[in-house]
Design brief:
By secondary structure, the protein is mostly helical. It has helices spanning 2-15, 18-25, 35-45, 51-64, 66-75. Helix 2 packs across helix 3 (35-45) and helix 3 runs antiparallel to helix 4 (51-64). The chain is flat and about 50 Å long. It comes from Pragia fontium.
Length: 77
């Protein structure tokens, strides 16, 4: 039982922030707030439904990165 929970937690941690990282480096959303959520939803809508699993994790990571994003986005304007 505990091994299944450990595998699930490991799987979720690997997905954690995936949309957030991808949006900042390759997704074209690097100059927007909460870019990981936007990237994950656009990928999920285009046919890869596994990105719906990533949305809550991207929300958490994007919230943590919000001060950094604010400085980066506002300094580029």
């Amino acid at each position: 039982m505990y091994s299944k929970i450990a595998i699930f937690v490991l799987f979720c941690s690997l997905l954690s922030g995936c949309g957030s990282f991808a949006s900042r480096f390759e997704g074209g959303y690097h100059d927007e707030y909460y870019s990981g959520i936007k990237y994950s939803l656009s990928q999920a809508d285009s046919g890869d439904g596994l990105y719906y699993i990533d949305v809550p994790f991207s929300f958490i990571f994007d919230t943590v990165m919000l001060p950094v994003d604010a400085i980066r986005i506002e300094s580029s304007r």
